[in-house]
Amino acid sequence: MGVRLMVVDDHRLLAEALASALKLRGHRVLAAAAPAAGAAELVIARAPEVCLWGTATPAETGAFDPVGRIKRERGQVAVLVLGPVPSPRGIAAAFAAGASGYVRHDERIEGVERAIMKARAGEAAVAPQLLQGAFGELLNPAAQPDDEGQRLLQMLTPREVEVLVRVADGEDTRLIAAGMGIAPSTARTHVQRVLMKLGVGSRLEAAALAARTGLLDRAGPLPGRGAEG
């Protein structure tokens, strides 16, 4: 039996694409929107069974304030957060606001659908290891905020960091390969691994995430470019 849904995401195109995919699987999508001013009010007014709430910045202060408002005014709405590779702090913030689960943006549609069904049933729709980390953060919060840029940097190999910097500089696969002295197919593989590790779906998103978290500043200049400027 289909679920009455709303899809809200930072990227309207992603929200509409996900809404279309869920409609094809028999769910009733009441609306797809970007979380600008008024998105929470729309959810409250429509009162879906499950709201998919996407965010690109789960660790940002106040990222889940709208989720908290929805739960206060429409407690029966299960809110399922869609986001990038999370830190325990981001997961904890989502649950503290009242979210029923957390699903990564790169999850397959089957996984999103399973999470939707769990959320509607009142279950926690989140991978066990993520849930454990979130509860640990809630019980013993860190004294200082997570350094997202440093955390992401530690996930990448030195070669992947160089690829990311080149992606952020606007280099295509051919230029990346030439600059690093590798085959285009190898460069393409490195790019895909970087996107996967960062939990994003495009080079543009990877560049935006790297810039926003300060990862590019930490990475330093590319080899041979230190004197440029």
UniProtKB/TrEMBL annotation:
Pfam annotation, one family: GerE
Signal peptide: none
Sorted UniProt keywords: DNA-binding, Transcription, Transcription regulation
GO MF annotations, alphabetized: DNA binding
Domain HTH luxR-type: from-to ranges: 149-214
Ranges of residues in domain Response regulatory: 4-120
GO terms under biological process: phosphorelay signal transduction system; regulation of DNA-templated transcription
Protein name (database record): Helix-turn-helix transcriptional regulator
Organism expressing this protein natively: Streptomyces spinoverrucosus
